[in-house]
Structures are given as C-alpha cells and as structure tokens.
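ok new one. same drill as before - structure tokens go in, u give me an amino acid for every spot. 111 of them this time. try not to just spam alanines like last time pls lmao
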C-alpha cells in the first residue's frame, strides 16, 4: 500500500519544479502554502460532507467518500511536499502508535 504513496510523493517532487502553466502541482507550489492549505481545507470539508451523506444512506455515498478522500490525501501530500516532508515520515509516526492506546497517545500530547 505505501508504494503508491511513495510513487505519488516522487511524482509530486518532480512536478514541483515544473511550469505552473503545465502542472497543477507546480501551480499550487507557486501560489504558496496558504493556497495549498486552502485546498486541503476544501477537500477535508468535501470528504466530511460525502461521509455524512453516505451515513444517511445516499445512493453513491461510498464512491463519493472514496473520491473525496483521494482528493484530500492528494492535496495533503502536496502540502507535505511543500514543507519538505513525505509520506514515510507520516507512516513512521503511525507505526509508532501501534500497541499504544489511542487514549494514552492523546493524553501524552496534552502534557
């Protein structure tokens, strides 16, 4: 599964330096972090809306959730790239959390 994220991260890095006219990713980078964060926020809201509709029994709900989550992950990956971070770092953090109660992990962040 993580191979897909690594491949996407590689493509995003390549497109970072492309022309903003020829690459959507490059255009986001050229517009800066605030534009990228705006897109992450927009996609997060669309994902939430799709999940709410899915939960209420909308016909194409699951497909919409998958589509919007893919958009959210994509734009989050662009954000990580812009910040010189990558999916491996996020996956490592998730791996550290195995065998730790979610309640314990949350409590450790509050200190």
């Amino acid at each position: 599964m993580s191979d897909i994220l690594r491949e996407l991260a590689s493509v995003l890095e390549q497109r970072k330096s492309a022309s903003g006219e020829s690459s959507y990713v490059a255009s986001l980078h050229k517009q800066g972090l605030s534009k990228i964060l705006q897109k992450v926020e927009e996609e997060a809201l669309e994902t939430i809306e799709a999940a709410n509709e899915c939960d209420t029994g909308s016909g194409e709900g699951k497909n919409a959730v998958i589509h919007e989550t893919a958009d959210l992950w994509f734009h989050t990956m662009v954000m990580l790239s812009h910040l010189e971070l990558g999916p491996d770092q996020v996956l490592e953090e998730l791996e550290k959390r195995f065998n730790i109660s979610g309640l314990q992990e949350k409590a450790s962040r509050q200190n």
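The radius of gyration is 16 Å. and btw The chain is about 80% helix and 0% strand.
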